[in-house]
Amino acid sequence: LGCFLLQTVPAARAHDEALAWTPASPFRDELRALGVGALIRDDAEATALASTDFGNVTVAPAAAVLYPSCPADIAALLRASCARSSPFPVSARGRGHSVRGQAAALDGVVVDMPSLGRLGGGSSSTASRLSVSVEGQYIDAGGEQLWVDVLRAALAHGLTPRSWTDYLHLTVGGTLSNAGISGQAFRYGPQISNVQELDVITGLGEMVTCSKKKDADLFDAVLGGLGQFGVITRARIPLVPAPTRARWVRLLYTGAAALTGDQERLIDVERGDALSGLMDYVEGTVVADEGLIGSWRSQSPSSSSSSFFSGPDAAARFAKLAEEAGGVLYCLEGALYYGGAAGGERDVDKRLETLLRELRYARGFASVQDVSYVEFLDRVHGGELKLRAAGQWDVPHPWLNLFLPRSRVLDFAAGVFHGILRRGTTGAMGPVLVYPMNRNRWDSGMSAVFPEEEEVFYTVGILRLAVSEGDLGRLEEQNDEILRFCEEAGIACVQYLSYYADQAGWEKKHFGPAKWARFVERKREYDPKAILSRGQRIFTSPL
Ligand code: FAD
């Protein structure tokens, strides 16, 4: 039980290998004796599913899977593990959208969080774990709930959360364990900055309701806490009156300096630039040789076309612009909300007019679509369906996500977008995101790690798929090369949705001395036996 070995296996084999594994279940009888309403399975089918994830790069076989019917089932499981001289690992698994086994529990028990919604309250159980208070302007959401269901429940009352991820089929507990970022974070902060209260079950099996006012240390620990301090079973998310529609804008740029300069003007909500606050959502992508504009993340939900920039001569115009720009283009992606609580169409037209006049994009390369608010927020789902149909959703995803200080983003662009990414990855698909956020919307008391030295920092998401034989190895090598480049160039980046092979990596490369000391102290307080989320490879033995 104490040993922790996460193997990297060729993707096609990952699921088969997990299936072939015969569970040892050394604590099968103990699990059966828990006396909970939960379902417990240790057959190969159940454990195989819980042993791999979206990344499809690693396999870490679990001994059993707990399908809880209520939070008390999870508390009982954690207390049973705690009571052993050799505690077994327990990991909450949302939808397993991690990419490196972070939600796995090698030789331990994976808690299938969606069961809380399915088994928890009769036929309308999902609805019963999503409860909107119109008066209080908040929603109480079970930790297992998907953000897309949170959206639907809130919109039924004309309300909406403010901060999102680009993909909504992620769980509330899963994204709050990381940070939860998207193009609204510049204004409202990440999702972890938009929580009023949590119900948490600590590694000791204690059920605690916490907030900034009550048990604030646990609250701060759990938000961005990588599942290390407790299982989130409920989150109270503030709501605001919802818009009904979005103008979805794409603008092509021929250089990183122009793109980032414009992005920074748009997110500068404090100092009042002419452009500040004109967009409600600000992101950006790197458009390299493969023409990432047609990539899965960029699909228009209501369009059969695979690209926003379509038309008879679009490809030729695009190729000419790319050639002029030296092979790398950038795309600023933005949205302006309107309708409902967000003002009328005339106002949005005026805002758009100002933007198209002021922004420094390549003239003639603007695309504007008018979609519903829901279509805009749930836009990545359309891409998912298309990739699934093409058999390209369950392929390996050797993703690399980084946060880097504003002052080094152009150095990063020169070395990585114009250098490393342009070599030897023919056929590799997937978006490369780049967009800034305001540091003051993040709370440094919480566990999430982000660059704190400058007012603005960037996220870069290199979200590629390994489609052909050999891609995975090549892309992983390239990720290593990018990290080496940053180290050698002195670009102080940290990973988001991080992966480090061992504790030393977390301590030295991720947290640094002060934050590491606090993280360890909190672990000692809330999960001293290091039972929770060992798949993150941070703590593998009791403290
Ligand atoms: P899992 O992968 O199941 O779990 C993630 C971690 O959280 C694990 O350590 C797990 O043990 C822990 N955990 C899960 N549930 C709980 C809980 N209730 N309580 C405590 N710990 C828990 N992220 C962004 O920030 N922005 C994006 O725009 C974005 N887009 C994405 C698009 C796609 C297609 C995918 C696959 C991922 C994207 N992500 C994004 C990453 C996403 O935030 C992470 O994958 C996250 O882990 C959520 O996935 P999940 O809910 O399936 O959690």
From TrEMBL:
InterPro entries: Cytok_DH_C_sf, Cytokinin_DH_FAD/cytokin-bd, FAD-bd_PCMH, FAD-bd_PCMH-like_sf, FAD-bd_PCMH_sub1, FAD-bd_PCMH_sub2, FAD-linked_Oxase-like_C, FAD-linked_Oxidoreductases_BP. Keywords: FAD, Flavoprotein, Oxidoreductase, Signal. It is an enzyme of class 1 (oxidoreductase). Residues 58-242 form the FAD-binding PCMH-type domain. Pfam families: Cytokin-bind, FAD_binding_4. Residues 1-14 form the signal peptide. GO terms for molecular function: cytokinin dehydrogenase activity; FAD binding. Its cofactor is FAD. GO terms for biological process: cytokinin metabolic process. Its EC number is 1.5.99.12. Monomer. Belongs to the oxygen-dependent FAD-linked oxidoreductase family. This is cytokinin dehydrogenase.
